[in-house]
Amino acid sequence: MKATDLLKKQHRQVEKLFKEVEKTEDPKQRRKLMDQIAADLKMHTQIEEEIFYPAVREVGTAKAEEMIDEAFEEHHVVDLVLAELPQVDPEDERFEAKMTVLSELVKHHVEEEEEEMFPMAEKKLGAERIKDLGQQLEQMAGGGGQRRAA
Ligand SMILES: [Fe+2]
Ligand SMILES: [Fe+2]
Questions:
Q1: How far does the centroid of ligand 1 lie from the alpha carbon of residue 25, in Å?
Q2: According to the model, what pLDDT value does residue 85 have?
Q3: Which of 84, 74, 104, 85 is nearest to 33 (CA)?
Q4: Does residue 63 register a pLDDT over 90?
Q5: How far away, in angstroms, is 107 Cα from ligand 2 center?
């Protein structure tokens, strides 16, 4: 699969989870969905940071550099919100507020990736390289984050 298609597929999956968490009032269900969102986002940002972003940076233009720097910073902000969520009671109003902020952050970031970064990467890196990167992403995603724990 193309690297960009694999990453987009993961974006859709997380969006689906955000919709589900919005729909439920059940604290247990909220906690479960939130844990799933956190795990999926961690895995996704990790494979982007370790494989995809360095490849995009290789494009070497000022625009590519700027995009990647910004993307790293946005991941960092996502990490900060994720780190706070386990301490927030799913029945607390702040839980909803934090989920909304996280969802909007992710939405903005995903839009920039899909509308700017991915098309640029496909054009500049070429079909072969994008497919090759897709394979690497798939392998790493399949590890389910075990690499970090080791
Ligand atoms: Fe990202
Ligand atoms: Fe992404």
A1: 29
A2: 87
A3: 85
A4: yes
A5: 10
Residue 50 has pLDDT above 60, yes or no: yes
CA of 45 to the centre of ligand 1 (A): 6
Protein residues within 5 Å, CB atom, of ion ligand 2: 113
Which residue has tokens 């298609």?
Answer: 5
Report the alpha-carbon distance of residue 16 to residue 23 in Å, rounded: 11
| Token reading at 34 | 């939130």
pTM, two decimal places: 0.91
Per-residue pLDDT at 125 exceeds 90: yes
Q: Which two tokens stand for residue 105?
A: 């952050």
Structure tokens belonging to residue 20: 């589900």
What pLDDT score does 93 carry? 87
State the Cα–Cα distance between residues 8 and 117, nearest whole angstrom. Answer: 12
Closest ligand by atom to 118 CA: 2
Q: Is 144 left (phi over 0), alpha (psi -120 to 50) or beta?
A: left
